[in-house]
Amino acid sequence: MFAVVVTITAVEGKEEDLIEALKANAEHSRTEASCLKWEWSRQIADPKQFAIYELYTDQEAFLDHNASYHFAQWGEASNPCIAEKVAGKYHVEDPD
After folding, report:
1. Cα–Cα distance between 35 and 15 in angstroms, integer?
2. pLDDT at 93
3. What does DSSP assign to residue 30?
4. Helices (H), 13-91
């Protein structure tokens, strides 16, 4: 499996716009057959901080996700709302 963890700092005053973009991206991403999980959260202590956790069957599935129309829409909607974004990509190890 392949995981992506993204942390986002929203532009001051753009938090609600970012939430709308996150909701739309989540709705479409969760319909992808190779997307096993797509969740976003908002930090309690600092409501300008967000995190996304994505889990795919493999790295190719994630690349397909990035090439999708809804991912392009996510970029258009979210870019004006993001002050900082850090993404990490991980191979998920099977514990067995």
Report:
1. 25
2. 87
3. T
4. 15-29, 59-66, 69-78
